[in-house]
Amino acid sequence: MPRAATTLDGFNAIAEVRRRQILQFLARQEQNVGAIVDALHLPQPSVSKHLGVLRKVGLVRSRRHGREILYRTNADGIRPLYEWTKTFEQLWQHQLLRVKERAEAAHNSTKEKSDKE
To answer: Strands (DSSP E) along the chain, which ranges?
Structure first.
C-alpha cells in the first residue's frame, strides 16, 4: 500500500524526521531559513522544501520581516497532533506507576533484608 502524501495532514508531514527536528527547533522561537540550516546542519534547499510541507499542512506559519521570511510553529495546527498523543497519556502514567511500585517494592525488600542482619 503506498504511503499517503506528506502534504495530506500533519501526521503524514511529521513522519519525516527532519520535519520533526525543524518543528522542535521552531518551538523555541521564530527563525529564518538560515538559522534553521545552521542549527540543524541541513542543506538550505532541503530546509525550504520541508518548511513548504509544514506550511501547507498548517504546522508552521511564516511572516515577512524586511527581506527575510521568519517561520514559527503554529500552535493551532499542532493541537490535533497533541490531542491524539494525549489519548495515550493514561497508558504512560500507568506504566510509570508500575515502575514506581516495583522500585519501592525492591527498596523495601532490600531494607527488610538489611534490618534482619
So the answer is: 31-32, 60-65, 68-73
DSSP state of 31: E
Bridge partners of residue 72, in order along the sequence: 61
Cβ proximity of 81 and 35 under 8 Å = no
* pLDDT tens digits along 6-56: 677 899 999 999 999 999 999 999 999 999 999 999 999 999 999 999 999
- Helix axis angle for 44-56 and 33-40, nearest 10°, is 120
Residue 18: CB partners within 8 Å, gap ≥ 6? 40, 42, 46, 50
Contact 74, 60 (CB under 8 A): yes
DSSP at 1: -
